[in-house]
Write a structure and sequence with these properties.
mainly alpha, two-stranded parallel ribbon
Length: about 70
């Protein structure tokens, strides 16, 4: 989660001289932990769900998938 947040912040703070004034790029990131018992596909689905939640909640954020007990 911390790495994703640093990446999100770096992307949003990046500016390029060729971009018009006021233009910026943002990133929404979904994070999930891989549980070997659930497998990669379940982890990817959880991260995808977290990404869509991030976009729905206003974009330019990191959201972590809920862990199931």
């Amino acid at each position: 989660e911390r790495v994703a947040e640093r990446l999100r912040r770096a992307v949003s703070e990046t500016r390029h001289p060729s971009w018009p004034a006021g233009v910026s790029v943002t990133a929404s990131i979904g994070v999930a932990a891989l549980d070997p018992q659930d497998g990669f596909d379940a982890c990817l689905a959880a991260a995808d769900h977290a990404l869509y939640r991030a976009k729905a909640e206003g974009r330019n954020v990191v959201r972590v998938a809920a862990r199931t007990p």
